[in-house]
Every structure is written in C-alpha cells, then in structure tokens.
Amino acid sequence: MASRTRTNIDSKPTSSSSSVLGAEATADLNALREFVALADTGSFSRAARDLATTPATISKRLTRLEEELGVHLVRRTTRQFGLTEAGQVLYERARQILGAIHQTEHLLRSFGKTPCGRLRVSVPLYTGIMHVSPLLPEFLSIHPDLQVELVLENRIVDIVNEGYDIAIRVGGADQTSPTLSRLRLVKDRSVVCGAPSYFEKNGRPRSPFDLEEHNLLRHSGLPRWPFRVNEELVIVDAGKALVSNDAFSLRDAALRGTGLAYLSRYIVQTHLERGELVEVLSEYSTHEVSIDAVYSPSRYNAAKIRSFIDFLAEQLPKRLG
C-alpha cells in the first residue's frame, strides 16, 4: 500500500513548475497507471508484474514524469520506499482520475449494448397522454436501467440544442432539419365525425358533396378536405363554423354538437368507441396523418434511442389498428 508518511516537497532545479498536473505537465495515462501501481505495491518488480511490463520501463517513466512535473514523487533507499508529499497528492488525484475514466469507459461501452441512462423524449400533449404514456410501464419493465423523461408540449422543440434524444411529431407538416432523421412509426387515416346530437338536428351527409349544407370545423393546417369519389379526387372547402390550429379544440366542438370535424382517428378513437362521436363518409376519406420519430442519426446507435423507437414502432400500430 502507498506510504502515508508526509515529507517536504523536494523541488528539482530542472523545471520551474511546482504544480502537480498543472498546465505544463504532460503526464499520460500510462504513466499515471504505473505510478499508482507502484504506490500500491511499494515495489518496482511487483508493479511491473501486475502491469505486464518491466521494472526498468516503470523506472524510466517515473523519472520522466518527475522531470515533467518538476518534483520528486518517490523517496527510495535500500530499505524504504515511500511517497513524497507531492507524490501523495498525485497518487490521490490519479486514483480519482483513473477511476472516473474506468467508469466512463464502462458506461460508454454499455451504450452500444444495453439501454441505460436517461432518455429525454418530446411528445405532443394529447399523443403523449393517450398513446405514449400508457406504453411506458411495459417499456421500462423491459429496460430497467433506463430513466425516461417524457416532456409533453404542443410545440416543435430543437432536439439538439434543448437536449432531447427523440421528438415524436404528428402530421409531418414541420420542416425537419437536414441534420436529423425522421422515421415513420405509424400512419393513421383521418375521419369525418360528429356528435349524435348534431346528426339529429342536421341529418347525415351521404357524400362529400352534401358537406356544403353542414357546419364544418376546420383545422387551419387542412383548409380543404380531400375525398375520393368514383376514383376522382374531390376537394371540399371547409371552415363554415370554426377554424382552429388545435385539433383538440375542434374535437371538443364536435363533441358539443357544433359541427363536423375531419380529424386523425387517433384523436377521436376513444369517443368513436363510446358512441360520443359517429364517423361518416368513411368510404370517401383519403387524408392520412403519420406519427414519426425524429432523432439525430449520429446518436441512433445508442441502445436507449434505438430500443425506444423500435418499441414504439411495434406498439403504436397495435393501439391505433
């Protein structure tokens, strides 16, 4: 073990530096490893055996290290081996440095094999609540070494500068940076739907042409509704009752019987199943919406990112199928 005897620093005249591992020091990791092994064993021969090298190699590297640092690190006599005060400082710091390097190397190796660490994901509010959050318990049970930070907000985040690993995007309308990759997780069709109370008052449209007689709730991103009639594309101008950039406001208006909305099925699926909304014109609808994962391609090899994207690509179609 390293000697704990403290002696005065014996500065060598060959260097003006007196700082241990200061700006002028050029000690490499091999020199630090050999010095720590030498301090731990108290013997050049035992340190050389542990490191599969020779006592002469360790001695030469120690001499060079002392010259670079400008201090004596070891006191050697025929009967005693010990560290100087500077050597004791270097020994303690070097053990910390080498320990941190070892932990970092272990962590980085695990990134390519086992998902671990923190995974920061941006998801639109409703998509996160309805479809991503319910999947997390299963995902975390599969990958117990992962911590997921799910941020729910309706805005386009800057993945790189805001520290996200993945962003879930709906609709594909935003311009993805050329430095990012985009992978489609699931494609969902849009549906025209309304509340039973609305249909009781206004009747049901039998074809897209009948929509001219109805109150239409339009998303600002879809000012014209596309349909296919007898293999021909028919476009309906929408927006006689309400225009909004928030699909959930349109859904809520439809639930209150205000009019007909043309929305992605994943937004209204629960209400359709409960009978709170009723789909019409299903045989004519052509509009589709995708749910995509956006990420940095340089980081995709990280096991945590790859595993989450693969998991969503498998599970989301089951929820929306």
From TrEMBL:
The keyword DNA-binding applies. Keywords: DNA-binding, Transcription, Transcription regulation. SUPFAM superfamilies: Periplasmic binding protein-like II (SSF53850), Winged helix' DNA-binding domain (SSF46785). Residues 28-84 form the HTH lysR-type domain. Residues 1-20 are annotated as: Disordered. It comes from the Bacteria. The keyword Ion transport does not apply. Belongs to the LysR transcriptional regulatory family. This is LysR family transcriptional regulator.
